[in-house]
Amino acid sequence: MQFSGIHHVSALTASAERNHHFYTKVLGMRLVKKTVNQDSPDMYHLFYADEVGRPGTDLTFFEMLGAGRTYRGNNSISLISLRVPNDKAIDYWIRRFDELAVKHQGSSEQLGRKVLYFEDPEGQRLMLVSDQNNTGVEAGIPWSGGPVPVEYGITGLGPVRITIPELKPTEDKLIKLMNFKHVGQYPACQEGQPDVEVYQTGAGGTGAEIHVEVRTDLPRERPGRGSVHHIAFRVKNRSELEMWHEKVNQERLPNSGIINRYYFQSLYFREPNGILYELATDEPGFTIDEPEETLGESLALPPFLEEKRTEIEARLKPLTVDKTADTE
User: Fold this and answer.
1) Alpha-carbon distances of 183 from 9, 11, 27, 37, 200, rounded to whole Å
2) Which of 71, 126, 166, 238 has the highest Cβ tally under 10 A?
3) What's the CA gap between 221 and 25, in Å, rounded?
4) Closest by alpha carbon to 11, among 276, 279, 284?
C-alpha cells in the first residue's frame, strides 16, 4: 500500500476574517468549505484549495480566537509549500508580494526547483515551489474566480517540512510503516546542522514529499497562531483506510480509530517525535453537500451537527465570503 500523495495540511489562525482575506485575496485560493471544527464546533474550520477542492490541494485552518504567537522549534510541522505551474509563476509572485507588502525571501533553488519562501500575516511559514520540471502526482486546477491569473495560480500542496530532534524514529515510521522512500537530501538552512532528508510516496514529485529537518539546537515548539496542527495523506477509499488502520494497530501506535469527517474518512496517529499524521480518503469530497458553483459561500455542517445549527451560528462571528476578484 502507498498513499496517493498529500491530502491536506491543517494549521491555526487567530482570525478567520484576516486569514480569509490573505488566502483568497492575496494568494488567490478558493474557500471551498466554510465549516466548523467537528470536535469543537464553536470554532471555524476553513478549507482553501483549487477550483473544486481536489484532494492534495487543501490548506485548512482552525480559528482559535486569542491564540498567542508561535515560539518556533522542534517536534513541529515547520513549513507548508504550495505548487505553482512553472518558474515564470515564481517571478510573477515575487512582483505580487512586493506590491502587496508580503514578507518573502526572494527566489532560490531547492532540489533543482525554483522556490520562494514567504510568510502570511500571522507568521505561517510558507513556500511556493515551481512544477517546471516536475513529474509525479498530478496538480490541481487554479481557481479562475480569484485575483490571480490562472496561468500563475496555486495548483495544490507541495512538500511539507517537519523539524525534529532525532531522525531515526521518524524515518523508521515513514519507511517501514508508511512505505515512503528516501530519495535525496539538500543542505540545511542553519549552518552546522544535518542535511534535510527527502522522502516520497506514491507517484512522487512535489505533491508527495516530506522533508525532514533534524535540529539539535532548538527547544520544542510552542504552537499558536501561525503554527501547523497536522498533515494528512491521501488514501483512496474506506476499505484501504481500514487496511492502514490494521497496520497502525500492528505497530501498537495509539490512534483515533476511523472517524467519519463527512467530506472524507480519517485516521489519526502520532509518530515518535510527536508529529500528528492523518490518513484521509479521497471520497466523497466537498460537493457532497454544496454545488460546485457555490462552494464555501455558506456555513456547511455535517449531518450530526445540523440540528445544532442555530446554536453554532450564534457563537460564530459572521464571515462573509466576498466573491469579487480585487485584493482590497
Assistant:
1) 22, 27, 30, 36, 7
2) 126
3) 30
4) 276
Residue 20 grid cell:
480569509
How far is residue 33's CA from residue 295's CA, in Å, rounded to a whole number?
6
CA distance 264 to 245: 15
Please tell me the predicted confidence (pLDDT) of residue 323: 62
pLDDT in tens, the chain (328 residues): 999 999 999 999 999 999 999 999 999 999 999 999 999 999 999 999 999 999 999 999 999 999 999 999 999 999 999 999 999 999 999 999 999 999 999 999 999 999 999 999 999 999 999 999 999 999 999 999 999 999 999 999 999 999 999 999 999 999 999 999 999 999 998 888 999 999 999 999 999 999 999 998 999 999 999 999 999 999 999 999 999 999 999 999 999 999 999 999 999 999 999 999 999 999 999 999 999 999 999 999 999 999 999 999 999 999 877 665 554 4
- Is residue 195 within 8 Å of residue 182, measured between CB atoms? no
CB neighbourhood size of 264 (10 A): 26
Residue corresponding to grid cell 484532494: 55
Helix (H) or strand (E) holding 267: strand 264-270
How many CB atoms sit inside 10 A of residue 254's CB? 9
Name the grid cell of 308: 445544532
C-alpha 105/C-alpha 142 separation (Å) is 24
Residue matched to cell numbers 526572494:
106
**Residue 167 is which amino acid?**
L
Please, where are the H alpha helices in the chain? 16-20, 87-99, 167-172, 238-250, 303-306, 309-315
What is residue 324's predicted lDDT score, i.e. its pLDDT? 57
- What H or E segment, with its residue span, contains residue 110? strand 104-110
